[in-house]
């Protein structure tokens, strides 16, 4: 079955429900517009290759039941699912194309100080990272690659 190749302009979407299971609620939208330096292009949009996911970084607001006030943090991709990496088609340097299928592992890292007590005290969220998931969403017409 063909999979859609991700290209510049498509989206990496962080699954808010998966972070709720980890103990936090993402308040602001968690969507990132993909970019790539790849020389392989269609309709002036570069295809995303393995490694481009390292550029994904979304700052967003979150809420935890441990704190009264929301805080800020950063969402990044920890690891792509094997279904999101082409095994047959690759770029000129041998890097696999990034595909739409599957879900990637994501990390939310708290950044700003959260108010522990609205009146005076402030306390840092000591949880170093929260793990969740995300997926790729196409912005427009897909480009398909036959993998078998």
Protein described:
It is a single chain. This protein is mainly beta and 148 residues long. It has one domain. It is 5% helix and 43% strand. It contains 1 helix and 15 strands. A 7-stranded antiparallel beta sheet has the order 3-7-8-11-14-2-4. Strand 9 (85-90) and strand 10 (96-98) form a beta hairpin. The chain is elongated, with a radius of gyration of 18 Å. It starts with a strand and ends with a strand. The model is unreliable at 115-120 and 144-148 (pLDDT under 50).
Short description:
This protein is mostly beta strands and 148 residues long.
Estimate what percentage of residues fall within beta strands.
Answer: 35-45%
Structural class: mainly beta
Tally of structural domains: 1
Order of helices and strands: EEHEEEEEEEEEEEEE
Walk across the major sheet and give the strand order.
3-7-8-11-14-2-4
Average pLDDT reading? 81
Low-confidence stretches: 115-120, 144-148
> What is the 3D shape?
elongated
The total count of strands amounts to 15
The helix content is: under 10%
Could you tell me the radius of gyration in angstroms?
18 Å
The number of helical segments is: 1
How many angstroms separate the termini?
8 Å
Largest sheet: 7 strands, antiparallel
């Amino acid at each position: 079955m063909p999979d859609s190749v991700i290209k510049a302009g498509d989206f990496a979407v962080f699954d808010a429900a998966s972070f709720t299971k980890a103990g936090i609620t993402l308040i602001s939208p968690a969507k990132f517009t993909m970019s790539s330096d790849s020389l392989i292009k269609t309709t002036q949009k570069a295809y995303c290759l393995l490694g481009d996911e390292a550029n994904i970084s979304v700052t967003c607001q979150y809420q935890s039941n441990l704190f009264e006030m929301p805080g800020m943090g950063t969402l990044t991709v920890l690891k792509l699912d094997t279904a999101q990496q082409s095994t047959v088609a690759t770029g000129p340097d041998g890097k696999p194309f990034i595909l739409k299928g599957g879900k990637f592992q994501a990390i939310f890292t708290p950044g700003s100080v959260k108010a522990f007590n609205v009146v005076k005290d402030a306390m840092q969220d000591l949880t170093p990272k929260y793990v969740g998931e995300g997926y790729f969403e196409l912005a427009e017409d897909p480009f398909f690659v036959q993998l078998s």
